[in-house]
């Protein structure tokens, strides 16, 4: 265990440069005293780690020191780094192990490749939960690959995009657009392209892109983009622009996790029942999300949603004979 921690300490210093004992202790989940002992052990083993005193001091490796762990290519590193959504390893109970693996991947790359890989990985975000829980995205592999190439390559993207329609309505014609990609987000099983069009913020569902072609022109991408913060802000802006529908729901307290796919504004629990007020885009949206949750979840209000779900249930019984 200590050997693995010593290796992780070297990789942290290799990747981050001068780092305080407090930060190292927090990252390695040990005490500062343990970090100091580990630094002494590394020095005794011939690893050129040294301490800098003062307000901005910390531990660092001598310039030019390298590690040789693996022959990962930048593309392979991007694929692994791009999978590093905080929710995934945490949900699997692999947070520390995942972080350690990511440090090894980053440290194993040459300087130029490391910069390229970490920059590219910062352009993709995979999130769990959201308004819908939908694993059937519908995005074609060719389109998604072309979009990824433009996002990672930092070039403009020409797309043919169709706007969304309600079920049963005729789809509108697809329109051609040139987009400056900012990042790719997967939320609740759907891929979204965040970009700029004529300098204005735009979000495109990848499954609605019929054709995609990366161009030779560099994309106009703002510096220092925090993709998760940008996604959350755009999602809230989208919700604020829609009229919205507030729905009163009840669920047994021990089945509260059934509502993980909805946005809850108010909540209270009493006598073993949890009641919430949840936000949806409209009646159709609420019906689509809540139908798979019945009968665990009871819809108390509004009446028109209760009626719509009852009619759907009757139609299902008739269809089943």
Structure write-up:
With 321 residues, this protein is of the alpha+beta class. 40% of the residues lie in helices and 26% in strands. It is built from 11 helices and 12 strands. The chain has helices at residues 2-16, 21-28, 32-44, 74-81, 87-91, 95-108, 111-121, 141-153, 227-241, 283-290, 303-319; strands at residues 49-52, 58-61, 124-127, 155-161, 175-187, 190-197, 200-205, 209-218, 245-252, 263-270, 273-280, 298-301. Strands 3, 4, 5, 6, 7 and 8 form a 6-stranded mixed beta sheet that branches. Strand 5 and strand 6 form a beta hairpin. Helix 2 (21-28) packs across helix 3. The longest helix has 17 residues, at 303-319. It is flat, with a radius of gyration of 25 Å. 21% of the residues are buried. Residues 82-95 and 128-136 have low confidence and may be disordered. Residues 2-61 form the HTH deoR-type domain. This is WYL domain-containing protein.
List keywords for this structure.
single chain, 321 residues, alpha+beta, six-stranded mixed beta sheet, 11 helices, 12 strands, transcription regulation, WCX_dom, transcription, HTH_11
């Amino acid at each position: 265990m200590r050997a693995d921690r010593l290796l992780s300490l070297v990789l942290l210093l290799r990747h981050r440069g001068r780092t305080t004992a407090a930060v190292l202790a927090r990252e390695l989940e040990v005490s500062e005293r343990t970090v100091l002992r580990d630094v002494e052990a590394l020095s005794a083993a011939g690893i050129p780690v040294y301490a800098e005193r003062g307000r901005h001091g910390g531990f660092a490796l001598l310039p030019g020191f390298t590690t040789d762990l693996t022959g990962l290519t930048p593309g392979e590193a991007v694929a692994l780094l791009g999978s590093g959504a905080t929710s995934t390893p945490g949900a699997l109970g692999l947070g520390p192990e995942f972080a350690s693996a990511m440090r090894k991947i980053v440290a194993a790359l040459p300087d130029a490749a490391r910069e390229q890989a970490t920059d590219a990985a910062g352009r993709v975000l995979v999130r769990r939960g959201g308004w819908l829980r939908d694993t059937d995205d519908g995005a074609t592999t060719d389109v998604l690959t072309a979009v990824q190439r433009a996002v990672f390559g930092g070039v403009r993207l020409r797309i043919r995009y169709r706007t969304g329609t309600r079920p049963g309505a005729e789809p509108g014609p697809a329109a051609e657009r040139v987009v400056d990609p900012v990042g790719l987000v997967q939320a609740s099983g759907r891929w979204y392209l965040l970009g700029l069009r004529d300098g204005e913020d735009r979000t495109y569902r990848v499954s609605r892109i019929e054709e995609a072609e990366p161009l030779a022109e560099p994309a106009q991408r703002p510096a220092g983009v925090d993709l998760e913060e940008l996604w959350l802000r755009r999602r809230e802006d989208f919700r604020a622009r829609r009229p919205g529908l507030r729905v009163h729901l009840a669920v047994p307290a021990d089945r509260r996790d059934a509502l993980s796919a909805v946005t809850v504004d108010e909540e209270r629990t009493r006598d073993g029942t949890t009641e919430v007020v949840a936000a949806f885009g409209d009646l159709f949206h609420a019906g689509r999300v809540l139908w798979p949750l019945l009968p665990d979840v009871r819809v108390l209000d509004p009446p028109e949603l209760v009626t719509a779900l009852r009619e759907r249930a009757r139609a299902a019984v008739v269809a089943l004979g």
